[in-house]
Amino acid sequence: MVLASQAIFAAHAQYSRITLPDSAAVRSAVKDSWLKSSVKNLNGRPSEIYRDPSGTLFQVRSERIGQSVAVAVMPQTYLKVSYIRGDEVEVVDEPSYSLNSCGAWILYKNRTTGEDEKIIIRFTENPDIYLQLKPLGKGSSADLIAFDSYLAKGKALGIPFENLYTSSFLTIQRQCSKTIPWDSVLPAENQYGTVQAMIAEIRDRLPSITFAEDAAYNQDGKLYSIKRGDDFIVDQSDEMLDDYLKEPPKEISDQGTLTLSSPGFVKWIVDGIIYPLTGRLSSISELLEPTVTPDPLSKQGVLSSQWNMTLNLDWNRHLAEKVTSLRSVKKNYDYKTGGADVNDNFFISEIQDDGRIVPSLGYTKNVGYSAKRLLPLLYVLAANEPDWFYIGAIRHSSKISTGESVFDGNAAFFPYFRDDGKFDCVVFQNGKELTIRQFISNNPDAYVHLERIQSYEGFYPQ
């Protein structure tokens, strides 16, 4: 590893408003020796360390990635490494240079032809969010990608591609300020405290929750059967809708526990806002009012006359509308007028597992979003709506009727950015806490219809 001491002009040390360590000065210094070098000369070349005028260290190295050879310029970061010394564990911050770090700048060259393919710039603490630059005629184009979903694609830049070798991030950002939706991927500052407080309160209460199909507490705090509309009887709990569970429900105990079904659990969370504002819990009968009316002559309509195919969706919509109305000084809203449905289409296209780029399906009315695309959606929602959480109705293929689907589960999603700028999303379902990736893994073929609810400082679940 070589420490390069050559002078790098301070005029090139630029930091954008995104607060990223910009390597423009270092890239100017290595333009001829690294960035314009042939693929043959890059193979096996040892990495080098450069210090920019601000004192930040950057590593320059090449490596093979797929069918490309990449030249990467990465700022120094630190990883916590644990060392066992006798009976003690010592945690040390070790220097690191990562392709996934904020400020990483990566030039891809075709391994066969040596032609430039693209540049990737990571400008947040989340490596799945990046700017992608490609040659376009005599100029270049820009894509903004979040978790393999395009927020912007093929936006022309008035900069020749080779000039991007040494362009600062701020210069690029200014050049496409009107065509790239930067605000959709940048965390809001100091606005996630209430969401995190709600997560902590729910998490503390999880040990007291026992799962039971069809159980929820009515407006008077009595345990009710959702479908029968009367007192819940433990030994008659219905397991018909339990297909999405990955393990058997826990045995029910009456010793200081709450007994809740999937929709009952989400109701309990939202009632933690409703009760402090009204002194009462939400009414089960009101939550069951239909919000979807299928054609009675259609197959869905015939099935709906026998089974409530949208109970979980109706339930969530009415919970969200009640909170919206309670916190509004103007009027009472229903789910249509209160803006509770999340129906945004932020993405243009998406990258499939096999590398193909296909149009993004986005939102489908009364169905929602593919569970596989929840990560980019919740990321953008967290950036755009920092004080909100979401309750989801989960739609799976029906095991009653081939070719049909039914809403059969509920969950609550709490996306937020940590103080270090990294994205996280806690999911609560069936009395348990999941990561968003665990939820997606458990429901790979499902659709999720989301309702938005503003977080509440006075949150107090009963």
Summarize the structure.
The chain is an alpha+beta fold and 462 residues long. It is built from ten helices and 23 strands. It has two domains: 2-184, no CATH class; 193-454, no CATH class.
Question: By helix and strand content, what is the structural category?
Answer: alpha+beta
Total helical segments: 10
Q: How many structural domains?
A: 2
The chain-level mean pLDDT equals 88
Taken from the alpha-carbon principal axes, the silhouette is: elongated
> What kind of oligomer do you see?
single chain
Strand order of the largest sheet: 1-2-3-4-7-8-9-10-11-16-17
Strand count, sense and barrel status of the largest sheet are:
11 strands, mixed
DSSP helix fraction: 10-25%
What proportion of the residues form beta strands (DSSP E)?
25-35%
Rg measurement, Å: 26 Å
Number of strands: 23
Which spans have pLDDT < 50 for at least 5 consecutive residues?
1-17, 236-255
* CA(first)-CA(last) distance: 60 Å
Protein architecture, described:
It is a single chain. The chain is an alpha+beta fold and 462 residues long. The chain folds into 2 domains: 2-184, no CATH class; 193-454, no CATH class. The protein has helices spanning 24-35, 39-42, 169-175, 193-205, 262-278, 284-287, 299-304, 311-326, 374-384, 436-442, and strands spanning 2-4, 48-51, 57-65, 68-75, 77-85, 88-96, 105-110, 116-121, 129-136, 139-146, 149-157, 209-211, 215-217, 223-225, 258-260, 349-351, 357-359, 369-370, 388-397, 405-417, 423-429, 432-435, 447-454. The strands form 5 sheets. Strands 1-2-3-4-7-8-9-10-11-16-17 form an 11-stranded mixed beta sheet. The longest helix has 17 residues, at 262-278. Mean pLDDT is 88; it is low at 1-17 and 236-255.
